[in-house]
Design a protein that fits this description.
- The protein is an alpha/beta fold.
- The protein contains 14 helices and 10 strands.
- Strands 1-2-3-4-5-6-7-8 form an 8-stranded mixed beta sheet, with helices on both faces.
- Strand 3 (102-109) and strand 4 (115-119) form a beta hairpin.
- Helix 5 (126-134) packs antiparallel against helix 12 and helix 6 packs across helix 7.
- The longest helix is centred in the C-terminal third of the chain and has 17 residues, at 287-303.
- The chain is globular and about 60 Å long.
- It starts with a helix and ends with a helix.
- The relative contact order is 0.11.
Amino acid sequence: MNIIQYIKKNKDKTFKDFPFNEIDNLIYSLLTYIDFTNVIPAFKSKKITLREAALKLSSKSNDFRGMFIGNTFKMLQIMKDTKRYQDTLLYNYMKVVNSDMQFGAMTMKLPDNSIYVAFAGTDTSIIGWEEDFKMTYLYPGASQKYATIYLNKTIGLLDKNIRVGGHSKGGNLAICAVMNSHFWIRKKVRKINNFDGPGFLKKEIESKVYQKIEPRIKMYVPKESIIGMLLYSTNDYTVIKSKGISILQHDAFNWQCKDTEFVRDSQSKRSKALQHKLTKKLEELSLDERTLLVKKLFDIFRNNNIKDTKEIKIKQIFKLIKEFKKLDKDTQNLLTELLIIIFVK
């Protein structure tokens, strides 16, 4: 079963009947893909129940921001009618998209009184994807800085039993936020959940602050993981069975569940090979070369007036591939492979 079927199956089970588990963890992290602007208060004392928020959005069936997460709105509408989720309190919703970053986050108080801080993954904007690629040479980036500010602001002195998580880029932001948060907040966080999110530069992975929080990081990736294999991260990750093909495995609604856990799998040869290629290429390039490469890549998108990945059609992909010919052959082949994997669905 997938997470929608899991929600339906356990709709009448409270967190007392059926304790919080890793599947609930993913479900809460995905809610950040929904655009709750003017629905959930941003840093005001008021909180709103999940049911109330869902009813306010009931007429906005396309109110989601992720490339792979089109079922999030459907999930929310099912959650609102369940004993398990409907009384979850939602608050401190943030959405920022400008020339430097694409950022989203919100905080939730669960019926078991625990706190869940969720960070949004990359949406369909080209700026969102450019920010992801900038992680190959820049730390902290704009969203990573904002994630830390957000976590420091949203957690109160009396909050306890705190979990932080996110899907895709949101997983990276969750780790970054805890790494750089106030020491007393860092101590309060019991678990950091990264659902197929990219890693960090080698220097950050080897830092003392990362080493201190690493035992609390739980990373999940699908069998054909691509996004989760970018940059450096923990080697101790759980591989999940997914029904999707290629990049569609990144869509968490394709991840398979059983009882209170995801169905375990083993990482594919293709995923391992891509991870090796990307790591090797990163190590070959200097910081200046990485910076120039990312600039050249996204100049291609800008020169073709592409502002959103929804605008990318097959013809444009071949046009972009032609533009890559200005780069060295190895880089050209790697970028072509990534472009096809990510945008040809």
